[in-house]
Amino acid sequence: MQPNRTAERRGRRRRAKTDIEDAEAIARETLSDPHLPPAGKHCAPDAAWEGLAAVYDWRASLVLQGVRQLTEAEAVLVALPVGVRAELLSTSRVLSQLEALEAVARQLPGVSCACLMTSAA
């Protein structure tokens, strides 16, 4: 809808423009157009849309799962012995600290990162 159409109509009545009146005028104009589909959820979504929504939901679930795992790992990192924590990077990034812990575990013979994490818990 052209912006001047709402202003012209209102100008004839000598009223100021408002968002509510603009919205009503646009809705009136939209409803009067027979070529536009009905608004809202009147038609069923197609298979492509449902597939995309499923992928989006799955990704959101994986992101939340990753955040939960990093939060749990942070609690374990804090509980590590002071000597092990001193070898880690002084950063607040949990993933960086986990990578540094893995590097420390590789240097110790017969010790794995999982072993260090379990002994801290």
Question: What does it look like?
Answer:
Helices cover 70% and strands 0% of the residues. It has two domains: 37 residues, no CATH class; 54 residues, no CATH class. It is mainly α. The protein is elongated and about 85 Å long. It is built from six helices and no strands.
Number of strands: 0
List segments where confidence is low: pLDDT < 50 over at least 5 consecutive residues.
Answer: none
Shape annotation = elongated
* Helix content class: over 70%
Helical segment count: 6
Q: Could you give a short account of the major beta sheet?
A: none
| Structural Rg | 30 Å
The structural class is: mainly alpha
What is the average of the pLDDT values? 78
Integer count of domains: 2
- In percent terms, what proportion of residues is strand? under 5%
Q: Could you give the distance between the termini?
A: 64 Å
Oligomer status:
single chain
Order of helices and strands: HHHHHH
List keywords for this structure.
0% strand, single chain, 121 residues
Furnish the topology, listing elements before pairings.
Blueprint lengths: L2 H11 L5 H14 L14 H32 L3 H6 L6 H14 L5 H8 L1
